[in-house]
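Bumping my old thread because nobody answered last time. Still need a sequence for this structure:
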């Protein structure tokens, strides 16, 4: 699959997302409007920064629903706590969005993963981010979010095999 215009070509687990594409700073987070535009989203704009009310990107999905995206660039050894998911629910309410999306270069803790499933948050962890950056659509990732991280034995074997 080809990368979207302006994005790096896929390489490694994250399809080049570990290094920001040209024009983006490290602090811009792991996702950016070009991936949303590639997927047919409209009205996509960055709102992140100080006083961003818990959102980094807002826009409209191809099916017309509004979305709010929170991005966190963390080391692969970190996990997203459920409090960060709760903040995203607040952003969803504040922006009046139909869908909340949490994108990270790390993993979700068990409680945060359960919270995401319970509250309909589209949770995109490290592996799914790589799929999105490599050409899968954001909405297609919803079919695999939730329990897609494997159990602790799977993650331990993965770390041993790939060294992260």
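Sorry it took so long. Here it is:
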């Amino acid at each position: 699959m080809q990368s979207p215009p302006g994005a790096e070509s896929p390489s490694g687990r994250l399809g080049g997302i570990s290094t920001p594409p040209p024009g983006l700073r490290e602090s811009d987070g792991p996702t950016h409007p070009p991936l949303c535009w590639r997927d047919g989203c409209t009205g996509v704009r960055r709102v992140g920064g100080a006083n961003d009310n818990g959102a980094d990107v807002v826009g409209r999905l191809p099916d017309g629903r509004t979305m709010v995206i929170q991005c966190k660039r963390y080391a692969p050894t970190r996990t997203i706590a459920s409090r960060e998911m709760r903040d995203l629910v607040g952003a969803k309410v504040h922006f009046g969005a139909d869908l909340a999306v949490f994108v990270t270069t790390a993993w979700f803790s068990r409680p945060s993963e359960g919270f995401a499933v319970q509250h309909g948050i589209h949770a995109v962890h490290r592996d799914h981010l790589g799929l999105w950056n490599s050409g899968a659509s954001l909405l297609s990732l919803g079919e695999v979010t939730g329990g897609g991280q494997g159990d602790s034995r799977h993650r331990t074997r993965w770390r041993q095999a790939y060294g992260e």
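Residues 50 and 82 are 21 Å apart (CA to CA). Let me know if any region looks off to you.
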